[in-house]
Design a protein that fits this description.
alpha/beta; Rossmann fold; about 25% strand; single chain; about 550 residues; binds magnesium ion; binds adenosine-5'-triphosphate; globular
Length: about 550
């Protein structure tokens, strides 16, 4: 065997995949046009562009999820036109989808090995299945998940990791990752990047789609920029600054993260006292003040989403209480133009033992929620933007019970403009929008509702830099009006830019609260990991971290 003691100059790259003048139309609308691009073995190509630029569409064409309208592809020199995802996978072309493709009712193991379930004479071999699943999970540090857990019981971050694990197969030649880290924290992201390095060393080509530009700079060799369905640039990543990249994507600079002083906080609006549910959330106490943004950091599975769900009454707490104070200061909320102001309230406290009994009760008390899981909890995909955006408050668009078309229209036009939602019209079904644009609709829903407390769970997930700046502006405006905002985010830079205080969750507990000026990325991460050691020894560590309703609660957690 020849040994190579000295490093040889790299061989000139042979394109593994050639995309040739590919275009895509949806009825009369062209969403991709004339995209010509070569992908080399062993490289990481960042595919970037604003929300709706066509990144997912191009990815889906490559991976057999949707056919191109025009143009063609060659894989290792052979014509490649996969008619289905299955067919693409048979050629080693796989995709981690932006909208997760897992089957919620199947177990983790079944999802991981779907289509390759081991059986003997027609009988499923459960032991073999679970062992294989465990190996697959270990690759990305998910040893603690029981392969027999139904996927529907996992938090969305863990689902994302399972989706990634599912696609880490030995026969992979091309792996497309569409927003794989939108719901991951630094720890999981590191596992993923280790796997990516392992794959590229083997010659696998990676297409990486992300709005987190610092990640692209960390792992990508080249960046391809899409704008309005056209490829406008393909550049080496080395020497490209984030600002360069943004300008190429958006056509202008966006000043994304400024350093603001702490906002002046008013009276306490919400008091959370010892709220808990099993081991998922353990005796969390905090108070939110009018006009402040309280950030919540923590690893995937640390109980952040579970806490938000308890505060919103989506899950029932088994101890503690939530109190919402109404006060006359609420009157100075002028939401969207043309929308009635909230009723003046005297100083009333709405105390709910074990949290609110339902989301409806929470909404009545003045709480709103922007969810991370837009698909299953946020949106009616078949319904138009108009319906989805006004869903939270019909009273805003009706007078005496009658829907005011003109008012509604004006309101929806306002959202579309403010948040630059890319759509044909307010009548377009939300399911047809790109991922980031769907997220903006979830957000729009609460813009006009006079909530006192807005809970935001990963509000900018999958949203591009330009639109993210718009959302930050809206959040600032809401805080200025005296609302209290509680924002969960996996993006520490976002939290550090937006929040006045940051609470860190670890293994179900609120382990630290930092004031603006006191935190650093280091100190936040250290706090996030602080309780993990203890957690690993608890039996519940293997239990799903996010139960989606009382019936799915892990039995050990409802003692
Ligand atoms: N089924 C569909 N019918 C009509 N239009 C669609 C459909 N699917 C996608 N589109 C449109 O195609 C365009 C490109 O969408 P795509 O999902 O590829 O964007 P993206 O670059 O992935 O955006 P994001 O960053 O938000 O994920 C969007 O304008 C979207 O509305
Ligand atoms: Mg997309």
């Amino acid at each position: 065997m020849p040994s190579t003691p000295t490093t040889q100059p790299p061989a000139p790259p042979t394109p593994l995949l050639c995309i040739d003048a590919v275009g895509k139309d949806y009825s009369a609308t062209t969403v991709l046009d004339g995209v010509t691009l070569a992908l080399n073995a062993g490289e990481v190509l960042a595919l970037t562009g604003e929300n709706g630029a066509g990144k997912s569409t191009l990815s889906k064409i490559v991976c057999g999820l949707t056919p191109a309208t025009r143009g063609g592809m060659r894989l290792a020199g052979q014509t490649f036109a996969p008619a289905t995802r299955r067919e693409a996978e048979q050629h080693g072309v796989r995709m981690v989808m932006q909208e997760l493709g897992l089957v919620p009712t199947l177990t983790v193991a079944e999802n991981l090995l779907l289509g390759r379930l081991p059986n003997r004479a027609g009988w499923l071999q459960r032991e073999v299945l679970h062992a294989a699943a465990r190996t697959q999970l270990a690759k990305i540090g998910l040893e603690s998940i029981d392969p027999a857990t139904p996927v529907s019981q996992l938090g969305i971050g863990q689902q994302q990791m399972v989706e990634i694990a599912r696609n880490l197969q030995d026969d992979t030649r091309i792996l497309v990752l569409d927003e794989p880290t939108a719901m991951l924290t630094p720890r999981e992201t590191t596992y993923l990047f280790d796997q990516i390095a392992r794959l590229t060393a083997r010659g696998v080509a990676i297409v990486y789609v992300s709005h987190r530009l610092e990640e692209l700079r960390r792992i990508a060799d080249r960046a391809a920029v899409l704008r309005d369905g056209r490829l406008v640039d393909v550049l080496p990543m080395a020497g490209l600054s984030e600002d360069d990249l943004v300008r190429r994507m958006v056509g202008r600079s966006v000043n994304d993260l400024d350093h603001r002083p702490r906002r002046t906080a008013g009276a306490v609006v919400m008091e959370v006292s010892g709220i808990g549910r099993g081991t998922a959330v353990q005796d969390v106490s905090l108070s939110l003040r009018a006009g402040e943004v309280f950030g919540v950091a923590g690893l995937v599975g640390s109980g952040r989403t579970e806490l938000v769900r308890l505060l919103f009454g989506a899950d029932r707490a088994d101890r503690g209480s939530v109190t919402v104070h109404g006060s006359d200061s609420d009157k100075k909320q002028p939401p969207v133009q043309g929308v009635k102001a909230p009723k003046a309230t005297k100083s009333v406290a709405n105390k709910a033992d074990k949290g609110f009994a339902s989301p409806l009760a929470a909404i009545r008390a003045g709480i709103g929620l922007v969810t991370e899981d837009r698909k299953s909890q946020g949106l009616l995909l078949a319904q138009p933007i108009r319906i989805n955006a006004t869903l939270s408050d019909w009273s805003a668009v009706s007078r005496g019970g009658w829907l005011q078309r003109a008012l509604e229209h004006r309101l929806v036009q306002g959202f579309v403009r403010t948040l630059s939602i890319r759509c044909r019209s307010g009548e377009q079904p939300v399911g047809q929008l790109s991922g980031g644009n769907q997220q903006k609709v979830v957000f729009a829903r609460w813009l006009h509702r006079p909530v006192r407390v807005l809970l935001l769970d990963e509000p900018t997930r999958g949203v591009d830099v330009g639109a993210r700046a718009e959302i930050y502006t809206e959040l600032d405006r809401m805080a200025d009006e005296g609302r209290a905002l509680l924002m969960v985010s996996s993006d520490l830079r976002e939290l550090m830019a937006m929040a006045d205080r940051i609470g860190v969750m670890s293994a179900g507990r609120l382990v630290a609260v930092f004031e603006r000026g006191e935190w650093s990325e280091q100190s936040l991460l250290a706090a996030a990991f602080s309780d993990m050691a203890g957690r690993a020894t608890e039996p519940s560590a293997a239990a799903p971290s996010s139960s989606r309703g009382p019936s799915s609660a892990p039995s050990s957690a409802t003692a």
